[in-house]
Amino acid sequence: MSVQNFDFCNPTRIIFGKETIQRLNDLIPQDAKVLIIIGGGSVRKNGTLSEVETALGKRHFDVFEGIEANPTFETSMQAVEKIRHDNFNFVLGVGGGSVMDATKFIAGAVKYSGDTWEIITSKGKKVNQVIPFGFVPTLPATGSEMNTNAVISRKTTFDKIGIANPLFSPLFSVIDPTKTYSLPERQVANGVADAFVHVMEQYLTYSVHAAVQDRFAEGLLLTLIEEGPKTLKNPQDYESRANFIWAATMALNGLIGAGVPQDWATHMIGHELTILYGIDHGRTLSILLPSLLNEMRKEKREKLIQYGRRVWGLQGSDEEKIIDEAIAKTRTFFESIGIKTHLKEYDVDSSAVEKVVEQLKRHNLTALGENGDITLEVSRRIVEASL
Ligand code: NZQ
Ligand code: ZN
């Protein structure tokens, strides 16, 4: 089997480094009317917002505050109303993945003439216009700063749904690593785990002899394994923080996924755990991935061995042992950065199994994985093994 055909284009401009926020002045048109979108206030407290406001200078702007973690359709629609009412023509998301994802949805919904919930039910396909938008990311994790995806929730109906559209590529992202120093340890750990699992879901499938994609993926995993613990220990060490941030961006910007099979089952099942139990995104992935790898060890055999040898340096000819150790090391890595990897440690009991399966069924997620063979029955076993 050889590498699949692909069409790779990433138009997002990245401005990276210390004291780069002032560059917004060159990136946003002088006559733009800008709505800044923020979350619960972290960017006010750590000074990022005031730097952004200074960079905008004499431009007309206002701030929409209140995008929640796991951003909701309802709150995002309030921003849409404000933009329509006050005629803003540029949106600037300043915050983590939730703010960036909400901004993408908002930029598409403003121009959408039908019922905006259709954007979600069509998984983003119905968006055919956006108003221009860019980002000042403050949390390395999702890769939203350089990709075409967003995840939007509606709590009343227990929906957390991924949407994607080439129009969701931000025009630019201005990444100043020092603006992430204020992150609590829990969010940094979540970010390391999220980025790690993004790489795994594009890498740990079956081999198509994509040497470049594989080596890039392994390089990102090794970087996260080395730099993640360092940046947790010394949050203000610029080198390790900058390396971690760039790894997280590269983990999900299309590069390592070009032409290779992908398995997003951990994310899909994880989204159901977040909407049902409020468990942080990165944590749901750390709970599920080891169980999923074990459940699919036959199908993923060749790649599990490659991962064990190249990423964890495992040796010897006993291949079953290498697979067991590679999975165990993955779990130990998440635990070493302070993430518990069993549902019971989040006060979730076995009643979760049926609830998650019901949700997957309702969302038509009945044939997940690179081969479409993670059926509801297999997902059930994965959740059971994660208790
Ligand atoms: O809301 P504020 O006050 O800003 O606080 C946030 C929030 O409480 C805080 N935070 C962010 N930057 C900070 C900071 N606190 C101190 N200092 C800073 N510099 O961190 C908390 C979590 O923020 P959030 O944006 O929710 O986290 P994350 O970046 O992990 O985003 C998670 C969301 O992204 C989705 C997830 O499903 C989830 O909804 N994903 C998006 C993807 C994409 N667009 O490609 C892919 C991912 O797989 C993921 O599914
Ligand atoms: Zn993720």
Automatic annotation (TrEMBL):
Belongs to the iron-containing alcohol dehydrogenase family. GO terms for molecular function: alcohol dehydrogenase (NADP+) activity; butanol dehydrogenase (NAD+) activity; metal ion binding; methylglyoxal reductase (NADPH) (acetol producing) activity. Coiled coil: none annotated. Signal peptide: none annotated. Residues 190-359 form the Fe-containing alcohol dehydrogenase-like C-terminal domain. This is Putative iron-containing alcohol dehydrogenase. It comes from Commensalibacter papalotli. Residues 11-177 form the Alcohol dehydrogenase iron-type/glycerol dehydrogenase GldA domain. It catalyses: a primary alcohol + NAD(+) = an aldehyde + NADH + H(+). Keywords: Oxidoreductase. Its cofactor is Fe cation. GO terms for cellular component: cytosol.
